[in-house]
Design brief:
The chain is mainly beta. It is built from no helices and ten strands.
Length: 114
């Protein structure tokens, strides 16, 4: 069964930056489109950004211009560089494959304080 381990979250002030990482195992990593998702308290999980096998990227309007998704097929890693963070970015962040996500990892918590 595929496993995803997210890391890199933390507490940051408004305008700060964080780089999230996702380590994937037991999966044919390079063949998939990878996505980042987030879930704030009492809200549904939502899509943030994705990167295809040929490095085409997609972002929500909220993430565009502030977040950058990247991948390293040799290391089975996906990254999300987040800049100019806002309180609305506070959430647990997850990685998974698209278009049909598999079992979810534990996520990594991002807290943006004003």
């Amino acid at each position: 069964q595929a496993q995803f381990v997210e890391s890199g979250g933390g507490f940051v002030q408004v305008g700060g930056s964080l780089r999230l990482s996702c380590a994937a195992s037991r999966i044919f990593f390079s063949a998939y489109t990878w996505g980042w998702f987030r879930q704030a308290p009492a809200q549904q999980r939502e899509f943030v950004a994705s990167i295809s096998p040929n490095n085409l990227t997609v972002y929500t309007d909220s993430a565009k211009g502030r977040f950058t998704v990247s991948r390293d097929n040799a290391r089975n890693m996906v990254y999300l560089q987040m800049n100019n963070l806002k309180p609305g970015d506070s959430a647990v962040y997850y990685c998974n494959v698209l278009p049909r996500p598999l079992s979810w990892g534990q996520g990594t918590l991002v807290t943006v304080s004003s």
